[in-house]
Write a structure and sequence with these properties.
Low-confidence stretches: 1-5
Structural class: alpha+beta
CATH architecture of the largest domain: Orthogonal Bundle
Radius of gyration: 27 Å
Order of helices and strands: HHHEHEEEHEHHHHHHHHH
Largest sheet: 5 strands, antiparallel
Number of helices: 14
Mean pLDDT: 88
Number of domains: 2
CATH superfamily of the largest domain: MetI-like
Strand order of the largest sheet: 4-3-2-1-5
Amino acid sequence: MSHKSTSLRSLALQKFKKNFWGVLSFAVISFYALIAIFAYVIAPDNTPYANQMHISIHSQPPGFTVNMLELPSEKVDTNFWDWYNGKASNKEEVPFSDLKIENGNIAYRPFDVDGKELPFVATNFVVDDGMDLSGFRESYTTEKTFLLGTDKYGRDLLSRMMIGTRISISIGFVAVLISLLIGILLGAISGYYGGKIDAAIMWLINVTWSIPTLLMVIAISIALGKGFLTVFIAVGLTMWVEVARVVRGQMIVAKEYQYVTAARALGFNNFRIISRHILPNIMAPVIVISAANFAASILIESGLSFLGLGAQPPMPSWGSMIKDHYQYIILDKAYLAIVPGIAIMTLVMAFMLLGNALRDALDVKTN
């Protein structure tokens, strides 16, 4: 029996590897997952939520380059988890177009997007004795390039996109996990025992199914309060019905199989029969629907963030980025809304294609 199971698993893996779109979608999802985990390691702006604002360089196009004055500020304590949570900057960054030394202090001309020569602004930074302007430039200035440009607050759009990936990946993972825990439990009980238990659970499923998903999520979010964790719970609680219906249908068919009858004859209790004999054999369609639910949860979270009910500022979310910049679509800066939109579309499409590939690979009736 074990050998046959291994053979079926190997056959499914071989069929999946031959599916070009399945492999490509898996690679795309893995790429996004790595970005989500190591966002603060690779992001140009590794401060918490990539929230360094420079209003003077707001809404700049991809590839924008500016000279940045980096003046030391308060010392910031570091710890091991800075690579995952980000760390506060120990430098004050100021975009500038020109520098000079006045009475031993540094003064800078603020950067202006229209090319105007603004008056110099004096700072309290005292230049070391013997340091000329060129030496100061080498030690305290840098040329910074924003590969995806800046948003309307002058924040690095690339860094915000990377950290926003974590929101979408995590909401999908947690929401699917919640839906699986509730859906498999209720679906298995309903399908295996039948009768009044089945009728009661089906009534609950039908009532939940009849309520529009987005409306239910909004209601739960309002009841529990706005926030990142609330979205996890709200989205997860709206997706269990699909899992429960699939598990129930599979359970009704599987409980009549001969191996279940043999397990009962051997005296195994119902819990063992359900958990160790039936569920492992009906997980293929559950895996497929989980991939679709993952994609749906990303779309729901983006919609909630667009409505202001999802991740709250300054936490970056692709949906909130579209909300902040959708009015720029009619201007010449449409990329501010298009870039996060493309990211959402790419990740959702990857999960949908992965679900289709898994469906084909796990279908033992096909060659």
